Amino acid sequence: MPKLEKRAWAEPFKIKVVEPLRMTTREYREQALKEAGYNTFLLRSRDVYIDLLTDSGTNAMSDNQWAGMMLGDEAYAGSENFYHLEEQVRKYYGYKYLVPTHQGRGAEHLISQILIKPGDFVPGNMYFTTTRLHQELAGGTFVDVIVDEAHDSESLHPFKGNIDLSKLAHLIDRVGADKIAYVTVAATVNMAGGQPISMQNLRDVRDMAHRLDIKVVLDATRAIENAYFIKTREPGFETHSIANILLEMCSYSDACTMSGKKDLLVNIGGFLAMNDREIFEEARNLVVVYEGLHTYGGLAGRDMEAMARGIEEAVQEDHIRARIGQVEYVGERLLSIGIPIVVPIGGHAVFLDAKRFLPHLKQLEFPAQTLAAELYLESGIRTMERGIVSAGRDSVTGEHTFPKLELVRLTFPRRVYTQAHCDVVTEAVEAVHDRRHDVRGLQMVYEPKYLRFFQAKFERI
Ligand code: F0G
User: Fold this and answer.
1) Does residue 151 lie in a domain region?
2) Mean pLDDT of the 426-446 span
3) Does residue 160 share a domain with residue 229?
4) Which of 26, 28, 76, 423 is catalytic?
5) What is the pLDDT of residues 142-164, one digit of tens each?
6) Looking at residues 124-147, what average pLDDT do you find?
7) CA neighbor of 372 nearest in space, from 296, 425, 310
């Protein structure tokens, strides 16, 4: 008898509550898509079968987190849940001070206002939409210093999220260390395809920055997923726990911004954490203006409790292995039938390479936007454009920026979909791939001023 291949992972949970999904017809979806201006952000969620738009705030909470919700201390000041969250952030992330925010961009806003002066530069490992916008609104200019491999969807570099130290040094030489507000380091790098940064690179960046008295701010949104890649890819970390790797990663930065809606298994929440007392004092002042008192930062007590409990669940080895295992399962199935995706497969998502998928479309015919629309039409699957629409316009010249990568993100919420759902997804991608030569591009007919990908509208050419 031939033997079954042993699986590397399985879900470390069972399902207790279910949420029914609605199936729709192709004619229905054609109409819904037209009304949404071919923008998946503008679809109604009830018209979506499998929602891979984002892994942000779409996680399934555990019974333990739901139980914690009942222990929400909804006092205006000094909520018990704040102190629990503070304790957990200290224990697992290692920073001394915590300022809760309603979500990640709330923290980005505060740190940008505190550390950036007009005319400053902020180097980082590829932009993220909201992060860069807050840096620009504070008067800064973001400079991408990620390794070149990050822009190559076919490069098998194990740490495509790394900072290119010579690019960083060159920028510092050119503008002077006093013009660098801080180095912004993301782990993992969302726009590069969920690609990790290595521990060695984090250490080197810290060394270079600190020699010149420059601060390092970590975007810790998916740092736990990054820790898994360090454990499985970086020599010397095989036997370290995810929790220990996370702590060491954070130790190479002065502060972090956090969107708890990803790694931390909640539906809302974020924080800014730091070691510097003065930055903390300023953040505590500002948070009152924009988010809420410094012991709730725009969150209900119950939200802070769910996040505090989520931190502990998120660093469990079985959890993270199954989480990334599911994403890799989909990526490997797609690779096996020759679908062009970003490799290595990322932590939170599989990224289709729309330039290679639809090579007959020019970049201004929005290949990734088009492919996301076609996937919805095919099977009711909702995905997200990460290409020229997301990249937006140059803040100085007003021209489109043309990113090298034109991607469609299939983002997996944590603990939400089953393996059969995953198979439906791969079959839908295959079906669109089979008829790719007939796919026509889009033209933009409405363009908002900020973060245009959220609300832009398109028509078929
Ligand atoms: N940093 C990264 C790397 C992110 O991916 C996000 C959000 C944020 C910061 C901002 O956090 O949404 O809580 O304000 N990313 C979502 C996504 C929107 O779909 O990738 P937020």
Assistant:
1) yes
2) 97
3) yes
4) 76
5) 999 999 999 999 999 999 999 99
6) 96
7) 425
